[in-house]
Amino acid sequence: MPKVKTNRVKYPEGWELIEPTLSELQAKMREAENDPHDGKRKCEALWPIFKIAHQKSWYIFDLYHRRKEISKELYEFCLDQGYADKNLIAKWKKVCSPSLLQFVCHLCFLSALA
Length: 114
What we know:
The chain is mainly α. α2 (about 40-65) crosses α4. It has one domain. Helices cover about 65% and strands about 0% of the residues. The termini are far apart. It is globular. The longest helix has 25 residues, at about 40-65.
C-alpha cells in the first residue's frame, strides 16, 4: 500500500513562541496589502508593505543572531518557509552597522552601496 502524502508542515521546536508575533505581522501585512491607495503614488502605497516585511525579517534576525533565543533549525525553517527575507538578513549579517540597519528593504541597501 503506498504512503499517503500530507501537505502538513512539521514545525520545529520553539515555533509556539514566535508564531503569535508572526501571525500578528502577517495580519498587518494583509491589511496593508488590501488598504486602498487612492491619491497615493505607487511607491508610497508600497511603503507600509516593505516596512512590515522589514519588521518580520528583523524579528527573526534579532531572535537568532542577537538574543540567541531560537534554534538554528527554527531559524532556517523560518527562512525556508518565507517568514523572513534571506537576502536582507544576509546583508545585516555582513554589514551590521547601526546606520545601515535603518533601511527598509534590500533594494535600499543596493542603492546605498552603489
